[in-house]
């Protein structure tokens, strides 16, 4: 079994008020020096069988149609060793 | 024979019964539709009601959009059947790409629940013909993922084609229901597709159809009487 990770993030131009709220809370908690926070989603997929180019193509299709809404989000697929 | 208007229930839908009631108050027959059933029971129009289908997991509307009933609704909507998406229903329509754009978390991160003043911008759609362009109405609003977002090109296109159906009315006191409640771009509260048969909005017309309950007004009834007139005259 191999693990494939899909990270989904709001596009850079999309306002992320949740990330901003986290960033504003940091100095109050004593964590200085963080100028920006953006919050996203991480999906860990346990893949049955080999993670070949065909399997990755299917996962990219899955990310594009379902895991991410490409109107507002970007995604990144990577194989975890 | 009166028109048959279907109201879809997904797991987590909240406003299906109010929507059915609004359909009946307008004089049409309300037909409950189940999310796992592809059969639309020969309805003439469909309402996708508000709520939190699938708990808003993944993204609001993202999982319901792939339900069996939506397969048929997407097909029929493209063929011209009137479809109204309210709140979560609007989110489902965007996720299904029947309407452009997407809904994001409100900029203030608060769940907003209040009577909201809207300006009807397009009174030529299947669901707005009983209003006049520029008319202000007051109906309830209740959401946390209500910030309408699309890229600049899409927004310009929507404006140029008159497809912004409703805007949050500004210029009055917040206590009077004025102002943009969620940071929606260009104060957009609802939009229509190019053909005018698919309309989605965040506020809730189905909660404002009888004087006794809701806002105390009936400003939302026009959605349902508009589509009924269109169907009966068709």
Automatic annotation (TrEMBL), chain A:
* Keyword line: ATP-binding, Cytoplasm, Ligase, Nucleotide-binding, Purine biosynthesis
InterPro entries found in the cross-reference section: PurS (IPR003850), PurS-like_sf (IPR036604)
Q: What is its main location?
A: cytoplasm
Q: Subcellular localization, per the record?
A: Cytoplasm
Q: Which reaction does it catalyse?
A: N(2)-formyl-N(1)-(5-phospho-beta-D-ribosyl)glycinamide + L-glutamine + ATP + H2O = 2-formamido-N(1)-(5-O-phospho-beta-D-ribosyl)acetamidine + L-glutamate + ADP + phosphate + H(+)
Q: Does the keyword Ligase apply?
A: yes
Its signal peptide is none
Identify a single GO molecular function assigned to this protein: phosphoribosylformylglycinamidine synthase activity
Is Repeat tagged as a keyword? Answer: no
Query: According to the UniProt entry, what is the EC number of this protein?
Result: 6.3.5.3
Q: Which Pfam families match?
A: PurS
Q: Which domain of life is it from?
A: Bacteria
Gene3D superfamilies membership: Phosphoribosylformylglycinamidine synthase subunit PurS
Pathway annotation = Purine metabolism; IMP biosynthesis via de novo pathway; 5-amino-1-(5-phospho-D-ribosyl)imidazole from N(2)-formyl-N(1)-(5-phospho-D-ribosyl)glycinamide: step 1/2
Q: How does it assemble?
A: Part of the FGAM synthase complex composed of 1 PurL, 1 PurQ and 2 PurS subunits.
Q: Which family does it belong to?
A: Belongs to the PurS family.
What is this protein's function?
Part of the phosphoribosylformylglycinamidine synthase complex involved in the purines biosynthetic pathway. Catalyzes the ATP-dependent conversion of formylglycinamide ribonucleotide (FGAR) and glutamine to yield formylglycinamidine ribonucleotide (FGAM) and glutamate. The FGAM synthase complex is composed of three subunits. PurQ produces an ammonia molecule by converting glutamine to glutamate. PurL transfers the ammonia molecule to FGAR to form FGAM in an ATP-dependent manner.
Please give the name of this protein. Answer: Phosphoribosylformylglycinamidine synthase subunit PurS
The source organism is Actinacidiphila acidipaludis
Automatic annotation (TrEMBL), chain B:
Q: Which residues form the active site?
A: 87, 204, 206
Localization per record: Cytoplasm
Question: Which CDD domains has this protein been placed in?
Answer: GATase1_FGAR_AT
Q: Which UniProt keywords apply?
A: ATP-binding, Cytoplasm, Glutamine amidotransferase, Hydrolase, Ligase, Nucleotide-binding, Purine biosynthesis
Tell me yes or no: is Membrane among this UniProt entry's keywords. Answer: no
Q: What is its EC number?
A: 6.3.5.3, 3.5.1.2
- Establish whether keyword ATP-binding is in the entry: yes
The main place the protein resides is cytoplasm
Q: Check the record and name the InterPro entries matching this protein.
A: Class_I_gatase-like, PRibForGlyAmidine_synth_PurQ
Looking up PROSITE patterns in the UniProt record yields: GATASE_TYPE_1
| Catalytic activity, reaction form | L-glutamine + H2O = L-glutamate + NH4(+); N(2)-formyl-N(1)-(5-phospho-beta-D-ribosyl)glycinamide + L-glutamine + ATP + H2O = 2-formamido-N(1)-(5-O-phospho-beta-D-ribosyl)acetamidine + L-glutamate + ADP + phosphate + H(+)
Name the domain of life this protein comes from.
Bacteria
Q: Name one Pfam family in it.
A: GATase_5
Pathway listed: Purine metabolism; IMP biosynthesis via de novo pathway; 5-amino-1-(5-phospho-D-ribosyl)imidazole from N(2)-formyl-N(1)-(5-phospho-D-ribosyl)glycinamide: step 1/2
Q: Which HAMAP family match?
A: PurQ
**What job does the chain carry out?**
Part of the phosphoribosylformylglycinamidine synthase complex involved in the purines biosynthetic pathway. Catalyzes the ATP-dependent conversion of formylglycinamide ribonucleotide (FGAR) and glutamine to yield formylglycinamidine ribonucleotide (FGAM) and glutamate. The FGAM synthase complex is composed of three subunits. PurQ produces an ammonia molecule by converting glutamine to glutamate. PurL transfers the ammonia molecule to FGAR to form FGAM in an ATP-dependent manner.
Q: Quaternary arrangement and interactors, per the entry?
A: Part of the FGAM synthase complex composed of 1 PurL, 1 PurQ and 2 PurS subunits.
- Recorded protein name is Phosphoribosylformylglycinamidine synthase subunit PurQ
């Amino acid at each position: 079994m191999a693990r494939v990770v899909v990270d989904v993030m709001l596009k850079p131009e999309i306002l992320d008020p949740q990330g901003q709220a986290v960033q504003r809370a940091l100095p109050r908690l004593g964590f200085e020096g963080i100028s920006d926070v953006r919050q996203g989603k991480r999906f860990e997929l346990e893949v049955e069988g080999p993670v070949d180019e065909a399997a990755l193509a299917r996962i990219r299709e899955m990310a594009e149609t379902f895991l991410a809404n490409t109107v507002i989000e970007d995604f990144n697929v990577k194989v975890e060793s | 024979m009166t028109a048959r208007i279907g109201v879809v229930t997904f797991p987590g839908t909240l406003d299906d019964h109010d929507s059915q009631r609004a359909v009946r108050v307008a004089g049409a027959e309300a037909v409950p539709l189940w999310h796992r059933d592809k059969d639309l029971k020969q309805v003439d129009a469909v309402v996708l009601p508000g709520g939190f289908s699938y708990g808003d997991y993944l993204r609001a509307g993202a999982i319901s959009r792939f339900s069996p009933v939506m397969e048929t609704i997407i097909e029929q909507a493209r063929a011209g059947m009137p479809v109204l998406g309210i709140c979560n229903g609007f989110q489902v329509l965007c996720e299904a790409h029947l309407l452009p754009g997407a809904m994001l978390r409100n900029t203030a991160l608060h769940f907003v629940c209040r009577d909201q003043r809207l300006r009807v911008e397009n009174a030529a759609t299947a669901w707005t013909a009983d209003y006049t362009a520029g008319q202000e109405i007051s109906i309830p609003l209740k959401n946390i993922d209500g910030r309408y977002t699309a890229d600049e090109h899409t927004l310009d296109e929507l404006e140029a084609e008159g497809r912004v159906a409703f805007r949050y009315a500004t210029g009055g006191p917040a206590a009077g229901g004025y102002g943009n409640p969620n940071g929606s771009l260009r104060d957009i509260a609802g939009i229509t597709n190019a053909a005018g048969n698919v309309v989605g909005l965040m506020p809730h017309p189905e909660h404002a159809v009888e004087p006794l309950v809701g806002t105390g007004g009936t400003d939302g009834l026009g959605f349902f009487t508009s589509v009924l007139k269109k169907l009966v005259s068709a």
